[in-house]
Amino acid sequence: MASRRLAVLAGLAVASVTLLTACGTTSGPSGSSTAAAALGDREGTVSILAWPGYVEDGSNDPAVDWVTPFEDETGCMVDSKTYGTSDEAFTLMKSGDYDVVAASGDASLRLVAAGDVAPVNVDLIANYAGIFDFLKMQAWNSVDGVSYGIPHGYGANLLMYNTDAFPEAPTSWDVVFDRASENAGKVTAYDSPIYIADAAVYLMTHKPELGITNPYALDETQLAAAVELLKVQRGSIGEYWSDYLKEIQAFETGDSVVGTTWQVIQNSVTTGNTKVVLPEEGATGWSDTWMIAANAKSPNCAYAWLNYIAGPEANAQATEYFGEAPSNLAACEFRSAGSCESFNAGDEEFASKIWYWSTPIAECLDGRTDVQCTDYSAWTTAWQEIKG
Length: 388
Known about the structure:
Layout: H1 5-18, E1 21-22, E2 37-38, E3 45-50, H2 67-74, E4 77-82, H3 86-92, E5 100-103, H4 105-113, E6 117-118, E7 142-143, E8 146-147, E9 150-156, E10 158-162, E11 187-190, H5 196-206, H6 220-234, E12 237-241, H7 244-253, E13 258-261, H8 263-268, E14 274-277, E15 283-293, H9 299-309, H10 312-322, E16 325-326, H11 339-342, H12 348-351, E17 354-356, H13 376-387
Parallel strand pairs: 3-4, 3-5, 11-12, 11-13, 15-17
Antiparallel strand pairs: 1-2, 5-15, 6-15, 7-8, 9-15, 9-16, 10-13, 10-14
Helix pairs in contact: 3-4, 5-6, 6-13
């Protein structure tokens, strides 16, 4: 995969120019264009693939609708589809049916390497300026200094615990790893190959001799250590979760008492006996990115959507509804009281403790060149072995 990155990048850069009415547009170090560019006429429709809750038009709840204002403002009618996992999104983008995708970091680099998404000219997106700098031009949304999308929302994969089972708040992930057997059958974990990175974060602190400096850049020895840790943990897992509603239910019934979670899940548990903590080792997390298909049928409406959803009001509505921090600081003015504080929005110290999901690739993301790292396909195979 890594060996194809530069070739893919060059090909997509050429393809992106044909989508717009531009003159001599090239990408500079910041990912923005170095020559004037402009959008063409809007096509009238845009097809969007996204996580549930990212593209709400009032059909699920009449009070929750940021799509209709976009359609009224731009004349681009939205056709949207939701997906349940990053693997599903990656597969669906192969169909060529979608102009835009909201991709988490465990899918974004795969989409780039596969040639499914195009570079994004941020000079054509006025609201890009308002996005937190610490979310821009990161490993999961750019390649070789070129932007491949617009940050949407972000959050940490926190440790949730039952206060009856843990009268004293845990401070380490050891309660789900080395001490998991103390709550055997009631430990839960996220059901995805990317969860291997959670084990790697733990090993960074507790097995420094492994030399892990980035949980998404694991050579074969480092991956083997993470897999072994997770195989031991498997004996204490009651259930793995990917549907957050199932985790809510498991904590409410007491079937789960400790495990990885999202802030929105803890906010939704009704029993009043759960809390969350960001452990001392740090945590994995996500920063989702709006990306444009390499062969988008409606590229101009796609750009209009990226600019709209990055704006303060739409970004506020979408991220609060989903349960995550916004990418735009001004969005906090449009969210409910205390909402941004609850999700640590704009807190760079908190954000610095998060290892945002990034697609593992053979070219080590930590900069090593003397070894080859394991890619996502190797992680997928390993995850199947872990679960048995």
